[in-house]
Amino acid sequence: MALDSTPLIGPRTGIGQAVAGLCAGFDALAALDDPAACVIEPYVLSGDAWRTRKGKGKGTDTGRGTDTGRDTTAAGAGHARPLPIPAGFALHVWSRGDRPHLDRWLHRPDVVHGTNFVVPPLKYAVPIVTVHDLAWLTHPDLETARARRITTLITRAVDRGAWIHTPSATVAAQVRDQFTTRRVRAVHWGVPPLPEGGTVPRGWGLDGRPYVLFLGRREPRKDVPALVAAFAEVHAAHPDVVLVLAGPPGPPGTPEPEPAPWLRVVGQVDDRTRAALLRDAALLAYPSRDEGFGFPMLEAMASGTPVVATSTGAIPEIAADAALLVRPGEAGALAEGIGRCLHDLALRAALVARGRQRVAHFSWTATARGLAALYREALAR
Question: Which superfamily, per CATH, for 202-359?
Fold first, then answer.
């Protein structure tokens, strides 16, 4: 089967983590001679990759994704088959029609899995597309021109008979409602691995002080303004604690937080620094207005760090009782939750223990088995 590995190109996004984990899961199944193992033929939608293969250029362009603050260059996409159409042009053409078919460029696989909201028009293969979230439909104020195009692409794929994979039952229910299809299956992602070691840079001025950590792109969906407003209240009661925002800025036009003595905006971080930030944080704050899964929560739990998150989207499904959940969009509720988690040692210990138990429910081999079952079901229909 053919799998879109375009998200592995460039700085690693949340979708890139998902694709890398899925590939690792299938590799693990193959190593175990598991009956669910699939032969994966990766492909990329990248004009630069095509030109590089032809000896006419260097570099690649990136696919759509939600950046999680991880500054990891591409790995695992080098042996992928580059398709002769750039990602941006593909979105433009496929949102208006069902050509060009790409079966012949993919050597006519049985199944083609579009991992990033888009699956090519196909003449012979069974199309499957991953829809990571529908935040722009559940929260219309988050809609953009690009999101409207993605809506059109999903609609056209459903009309062509595509099956939809989602990383949570929450998003699966939204897809069934929004696109009026029953060909939807939820398969959870695993937990992204983090390296051992790593240190928090001294130049950030933390000096051993406790800190609350946010990981992710500062886009409107993540509701960083609510977190900053909440932390102003927290700092009044806990003047020794600071707030660290790790990850790139939001899209153009997204306001940046005002400087404050208790705020550190550190930008993208590599994996070792990310691991150190998670390991040493007093807690992870996850104030999103909507989420389809939530990698940072599971990474924090795996690192033994308590999580305070909003009770919205798929967050309750993924976190279960292993995070302190508060009402979304309310700085006061978020401040109260962070404050409780900072001073209530019994609560912190309980969250850490539940977190370690919770992450045991998520593995990449389970993800690969679940998607292999979806591929078989789609082929049998």
Answer: Glycogen Phosphorylase B; (3.40.50.2000)
CB under 8 Å to 67, separation ≥6 — which residues?
11, 13, 14, 216, 217, 247, 248, 268
CA distance to 129, 287, 338, 342, 351, per residue, from 325 (Å): 30, 10, 10, 14, 11
Query: What residue spans of 5-99 are helical by DSSP H?
Result: 14-31, 47-53, 87-94
DSSP 182: S
Q: What is the DSSP string of 348-369?
A: HHHHHHHHHHHHTT--HHHHHH
**In Å, how far from its chain's centre is CA 118?**
15
For residue 299, CA distances in Å to 152, 177, 275 come to 33, 31, 8
**Between 206 and 287, whose confidence is greater?**
287
The alpha helices in 185-223, defined as continuous H runs, are none
**How far is Cα 162 from Cα 378, in angstroms, rounded to an integer?**
9
pLDDT at 66 over 70: no
Q: Which of 61-75, 216-230, 296-310 has the lowest mean pLDDT?
A: 61-75
Give, in order, the Cα–Cα distances in Å from 52 to each of 61, 106, 115, 251, 270: 12, 18, 23, 29, 27
Record the tokens describing residue 96, joined without a space: 């208006």
Q: What is the pLDDT of residue 99?
A: 76
Model confidence pLDDT, tens digit, residues 226-253? 999 999 999 999 999 999 999 999 998 8
Q: Would the CATH topology of 2-190+363-380 be identical to that of 202-359?
A: yes
How far is Cα 57 from Cα 65, in angstroms, rounded to an integer? 24
| Virtual torsion, Cα 273, 279, 285, 289, nearest 10 deg | 60
- Band (pLDDT 50/70/90 cuts) for residue 46 is low
Amino acid (one-letter) located at 225: P
Please report, for the chain, the start and end positions of each structural domain, with discontinuous segments joined by +: 2-190+363-380, 202-359
What is the arithmetic mean of pLDDT over 14-33? 94
DSSP 268: -
Instruction: Return all residues near 216 (Cβ < 8 A) that are at least 6 apart.
Output: 66, 67, 68, 69, 222, 247, 296
Q: How many CB atoms lie within 10 A of CB 161?
A: 13
CATH number for the domain running over 2-190+363-380: 3.40.50.2000
